[in-house]
Design a protein that fits this description.
heterodimer, A: 610 residues, alpha/beta, de novo design (two linked rop proteins), Fumarate Reductase Iron-sulfur Protein, Chain B, domain 2, Rossmann fold, five-stranded parallel β-sheet, 39% helix, globular, B: 581 residues, Ubiquitin-like (UB roll), Alpha-Beta Plaits, 3 domains, five-stranded mixed β-sheet, 19 helices, Nuop51_4Fe4S-bd_sf (chain A), oxidoreductase activity (chain A)
Chain lengths: 610, 581
């Protein structure tokens, strides 16, 4: 017998390891709407399998909890049983020796808190309050409900124009979304159960770039009804597009010189080239929308007046007001907001940051956008200061990676302190206080002050990107309710007690994504149409081909590639490279067609019109 | 056209054909269970799986289409094993005590299991637990449900009432009443279409046969039975006798053998209904300015349940005339009791209906006007009667034809077509024409209403210078479309006939079941044939009806007619509100 030996994995253990990976991916692709008690019971069974068997609470208690949950599911429990489940779980939590036991019990306790109603429904009526309501994961997770499996099938067949037409049924800005959508559709893609989610956004980009010119759907006969849209961002443009093809007369009122909203004045062109955006807006306007630029609500424009002149009004003014940073010395020259910088860039006025040391405060997409823009404006050094950890940044992972690759430094776990000003009133340095990561609150660890001295970051420019709000005063004056910095609109876009006035997009939700804004525009268009006394159907005659029957062999996902760093930081041109034909064909054929296979063929697999 | 090979046979079928259909037209049957053409093509049971060369996993034949060059094997070893396992799995969650099941011998699961030679199930029985409301006219047996989803589909797509849905998720997925309601709280019309489309015995009517056997055995009871029009076109189906042989007169013979004292015809009271409803309509026409149109027929209780739950603001537009079943019940315990000189309490009135909702209708308290318990005591479906005939060991093949009893067994050809969509309208128009002009039209003058169209059929006729616009809809999805269109003011009608079941009572939810086959049209043809050969084609010429008025009711819409043959729909409560989707 040797004194020590190298531990090697046997075949069984290696197989179990791959099964763990399979399970992880499977949980990612879990469909929403499942019975939470059934899931809790299944999790508990797995937890119980993990027990070493040494201690009573875990070895016996978890098994008894499982049985109690099964009784609830089988309609064999009394209301009293909930108390017994709680008591048992609590005792396991208090007395289990290691986390395998007490965290398993904690999951059960969380469940009783989180879905007690469902426990009661099972016990009293032997029914679950939940039901599978979202059969096609990608479609149901797209706020606009775009027919993803449909257009991927069309791409696989090389019918790119049809793919774009199908997208436009639910989203009139496919080119924009092809580049900047945060693709919530991909998060629970069922393909995860085999290998990895489909690169849906990448495929959309391929379709858009190969579709040629795709005209708007034919307009319905004119209704003579007039709709005013306040704000020419993605939400306003989407509402305008659908209302126009429904036959209504639409006019857009825009504060800035050009349409696009945050797409132009927030997103830099290396992510969304201006020519792409301009073309998309032109296509929408070509349906016959009248545009007035340079008009602001509360100044040249009054909602009350618009209400008088139009049959309905849609407010989609976005959230463009930067939140102030509140630091000592913030009045110093060289301290600006990210919104301001990106707005200038949007109007092709590039601030001079050449050879400057720039500090950006914030961890969201806007912070990253402005940091990467600063790199392109030839800043000497770009530092992103963020109070939590890098992994906690709300910005897209690939954007953060892009920024790092382009030379941005990330100072995580630092809170900004005072601003040091030179004798000319210009910023000289930012003092930052080191933090230590601490306990978890609302799923994110909070930072607390570390027992370290403040540090000084020398800089010529400070750009803060710590969130945006809306200009509420003029709206309130006109009787539009504003709560917690956003317009108080209902989930169908209407505003309580203000008939005929609708609102949506960032000005209602607070800063969110393009696709959320587009979806809000679509919702508003449908409800305004009804309000005007119509029920125009939006649909397309694109026929989607039958699902392929071939086996789905595990295959890697085609990820997007980017231009060479040294090359791309020289200009504001698009960073991301599109898929090749070969890649698009392979990627599109990975789609599992959940509209045909599984629940989708039974219910809700395809919403052909709205 | 697409070329492919199925089981080594070269075949050529049009593009878009499913593998199942491509095989079927080439005499290669692929067993299937959940599939119902155009209604349920969801591949849930996985019994119709086939192997396709070059594809490792099996493919369902019911909802996948052929491709050029495809090589299909419907019975390869892989298919054979998988199909068998799937049927065994279904059986493990199915109460397979077939000997005690109404669908034994007419069950698609039983047939497939038998065909595959399954005599032993390797899996443990794992039946779901759920409780159904005792006594409701519609019965779901959760332990027999195979989750084919057909009931959900028929109620969603054809009847547009969405009563059924999946309940729970995962391993406990079940089919149950939607929105976590109990069936008695739901706005179910009781059309019974879910029953006639169930491939197994999970859905059925409440069985009332024992109550009838008990009444027949009770020496003090005078048992009267009425046979609905559509029953005569279908009753033989469950007994394996041909449509030609299974005449209503042979059904009369079977019922007499069973021991019923008097065997009558609902057609008699259908003629009576025409007298009342026809006069009501003509009266309404004469008072056009003050009346709201259209007038809706009221003989289908499924439709009555539908309008009361879906469009309660329109119930004043229903004809106040009771259905033929209820008119018959009221007459049998008043006029006929007098004729027999018996205490009406002794009369036990049974009706044989192609319908589930009729079981509900006879229980509605405000419909009982004869003052001797329920006007109709028990309603049996066509299927229940066939079961009783079998239980009595009556051999239908040797039955001689026998006549109905008199006087409530006399009826016109107009009455017999009540059993098909458009029939009530046609019968009513024949008599309305007479009421307005005092002369008979050509009995086939209103034949146009027999044509079947999508959603609903409309027609207009000239009644002595008055243009009458009528519409006919069957199936509740069609009905909803028609009513929505009327409510939007897009169409206007004077008289509208609605039947809850597609094709009318001929396709009723209480009729015999042949899986995958819609028989309403074939049965309707029988009824039209019976109308054609009847020497009496007009309700108002029915001598028994005339005599009943002369001796008892006086005239249509008289006080007595009103108290016995009409109802106030506002007192007939049905406080069920539908859940919006």
């Amino acid at each position: 017998m040797s004194r020590l030996s190298i531990i090697t994995r046997d075949k069984a253990q290696a197989t179990v390891e791959t099964l763990y990976k399979d399970l992880e991916r499977r949980i990612i692709a879990s469909p929403p709407g499942l019975c939470p008690i059934d899931l809790a019971s299944s999790f508990l069974k797995m937890c119980h399998a993990q027990t070493c068997g040494k201690c009573v609470p875990c070895r016996i208690g978890l098994g008894q909890l499982e049985k109690l949950l099964e009784d609830v599911l089988n309609g064999e429990a009394e209301l009293e049983s909930i108390k017994l489940i709680e008591k048992t779980a609590r005792s396991i939590y208090y007395s289990a020796d290691c986390a395998i036991g007490y965290e398993a019990a904690n999951m059960v306790l969380k469940g009783i808190n989180g879905f007690r109603d469902d426990f009661e429904e099972h016990i009293l009526r032997n029914r679950c309050t939940f039901g599978l309501y979202q059969p096609v994961p990608c479609v149901s997770l797209c706020p606009a409900g775009v027919d993803v499996p449909g257009y991927i099938a069309l791409i696989a067949e090389g019918r790119y124009a049809d793919a774009v037409r199908l997208i436009k049924k639910d989203n009139p800005m496919p080119a924009t979304c092809a580049l900047v959508c945060e693709h919530p559709c991909e998060t629970r893609c069922r393909r995860n159960m085999i290998d990895d989610s489909i690169n849906i956004r990448g495929l959309k980009r391929f379709a858009v770039e190969n579709a040629g010119e795709v005209l708007a759907e034919e307009k319905a006969p004119t209704t003579g009804k007039k709709v005013a849209i306040v704000g020419g961002g993605p939400s306003g443009l989407s509402a305008a597009y659908y209302l126009t093809i429904m036959g209504h007369d639409v006019e857009i009122f825009e504060q800035r010189q050009k349409l696009g909203g945050m797409l132009r004045y927030g997103i830099p062109s290396y992510r969304l080239p201006r020519d792409v955006l301009d073309r998309e807006i032109e296509t929408i306007l070509a349906t016959g929308i009248k545009v007035h630029t340079g008009v602001t609500v509360g100044e040249e424009l009054s909602i009350i007046d618009l209400k008088r002149r139009f049959d309905a009004v849609y407010i989609a003014i976005g959230a463009h007001i930067d939140k102030k940073i509140g630091l000592e010395g913030q009045e110093a020259e060289g301290v600006v907001s990210a919104v301001e910088v990106l707005r200038q860039i949007g109007d092709d006025e590039y601030p001079d940051l050449a050879d400057k040391s720039v500090v950006v405060i914030g961890g969201g997409n806007v912070a990253i956008d402005v940091a990467r823009s600063a790199v392109r404006l030839r800043a000497r050094k770009v530092t992103i200061v963020y109070r939590r950890r890098k992994v906690d940044m709300p910005a897209l992972k690939e954007e953060i990676e892009g920024a790092i690759a382009e030379g941005c430094e990330i100072y995580d776990l630092y809170t900004p302190g005072k601003i040091e000003i030179d004798d000319k009133g210009h910023i000289e340095a930012l003092w930052v206080q080191p933090q230590i990561v601490s306990t978890i609150k609302s799923d994110r660890p909070i930072p607390v002050k570390a027992k370290k001295d403040p540090e000084r970051i020398e800089c010529d420019s400070l750009i803060f990107a710590i969130g945006q709000g809306i200009e509420s005063k003029p709206l309130e004056r006109e009787g539009i309710p504003v709560t917690e910095g956003v317009i108080d609109a209902l989930n169908w876009g209407g505003i309580k007690n203000v008939p005929g006035v609708y609102a949506g997009g960032d000005c209602v939700s607070g800063p969110a994504t393009v696709i959320h804004a587009i979806a809000a525009g679509k919702v508003a268009a449908a409800n305004i149409d009804n309000y005007l006394g119509y029920y125009h159907i939006i649909e397309t005659d694109v026929k989607i081909s039958e699902a392929r029957l071939a086996d789905r062999i595990p295959c890697g996902r085609v990820n997007m590639r980017e231009r060479d760093v040294t090359d791309r930081i020289q200009d504001f041109d698009l960073v991301e490279c599109g898929m090749t034909l070969e890649e698009a064909q392979q990627e599109s054929r990975r789609c599992l067609r959940c509209d045909h296979f599984g629940f989708g063929v039974f219910k809700g697999g395809r919403i052909e019109q709205w | 056209m697409v070329n492919l090979i199925i089981d080594n046979k070269k075949v050529r079928v049009p593009e878009g054909t499913t593998i199942l259909d491509a095989a079927a037209v080439n005499h290669i049957p692929i067993p299937h269970l959940c599939y119902l053409k155009e209604l349920n093509e969801i591949g849930a049971c996985r019994v119709c799986v086939v192997e396709i060369e070059g594809i490792n996993r099996l493919v369902t034949a019911c909802n996948n289409v052929v491709e050029e060059g495809m090589v299909v094997f419907t019975n390869s070893p892989k298919v054979r094993e998988t199909r068998r396992v799937n049927v065994e799995l279904i059986l493990s969650q199915h109460d397979a005590r077939c000997a005690a099941c109404v669908r034994s011998g007419n069950c698609s699961l039983q047939t497939i299991a038998n065909d595959l030679g399954i005599i032993d199930i390797p899996y443990k029985e794992d039946l779901p637990y759920a409780k159904w409301t005792e006594g409701f006219p519609l019965v779901r047996n959760y332990e027999k449900c195979i989750k084919c989803m057909r009931c959900i589909q028929i109620c969603d797509k054809i009847q547009d009432l969405h009563i059924w849905d999946l309940s729970n998720t995962g391993s406990r997925t079940n089919v149950d009443v939607s929105y976590n309601r109990r069936i008695e709280e739901a706005d179910c019309a009781l059309c019974g279409q879910c029953i006639t489309h169930c491939p197994v015995g999970s859905l059925r009517e409440r069985d009332d046969t024992q109550r009838v056997f008990d009444a027949l055995a009770d020496k003090d009871k005078i048992t009267i039975v009425q046979i609905a029009p559509a029953v005569r076109a279908a009753w033989g189906e469950d007994l394996g006798i041909s449509r030609e042989f299974a005449t209503v007169k042979r059904l009369v013979a079977a019922l007499r053998k069973m021991g019923f004292d008097y065997i009558f015809d609902t057609n008699f009271s259908a003629d009576l209904t025409i007298m009342e409803e026809g006069n009501e309509f003509v009266e309404k026409l004469n008072n056009r300015e003050n009346e709201k149109f259209p007038l809706f027929t009221s003989c289908c209780p499924g439709w009555i349940r539908f309008i009361k739950s879906q469009y309660p603001d329109m119930i004043d537009q229903l004809s106040t005339a009771k259905s033929p079943q209820q008119m018959f019940g009221a007459i049998s315990k008043t006029y006929y009791a007098e004729l027999l000189h018996v205490d009406p309490e002794r009369i036990f009135c049974v009706s044989i209906m192609p319908c589930i909702a009729k079981k509900y209708e006879c229980d509605v308290s405000v419909l009982n006007d004869a003052g001797a318990g329920q006007d109709v005591d028990v309603v049996l479906t066509t299927r229940e009667v066939a079961r009783m005939i079998r239980a009595e060991h009556i051999i239908p093949e040797v039955l001689e034809e026998e006549e109905f009893d008199s006087p409530l067994g006399v009826s016109s050809g107009a009455a017999v077509i009540f059993g098909t969509t458009g029939g009530v309208m046609e019968a009513a128009l024949r008599s309305a024409y007479y009421l307005v002009t005092n002369e008979n039209p050509d009995p086939d003058a209103f034949k146009e209403v027999r044509e079947r169209e999508n959603s609903w059929k409309e027609a207009s006729f000239d009644l002595a210078g008055t243009n009458i616009r009528v519409a006919i809809a069957s199936g509740l999805g069609n009905t909803r479309r028609l009513i929505e269109t009327i409510r939007k003011g897009i169409v206007e009608y004077d008289f509208v006939e609605i039947m809850a079941c597609p094709g009318g009572c001929a396709g009723g939810g209480g009729q015999p079941i042949e899986d995958g086959v819609e028989l309403a049209e074939e049965r309707s043809d029988v009824l039209y044939g019976l109308d054609k050969i009847n020497e009496m084609r007009f309700s108002h010429e029915n001598p028994s009806v005339i005599k009943c008025y002369e001796d008892y009711l006086q005239r249509p819409l008289s006080r007595r007619a009103h108290s016995l043959l009409h109802t106030d729909h506002r007192t007939w409560e049905f406080n069920i509100t539908p859940k919006k989707l």
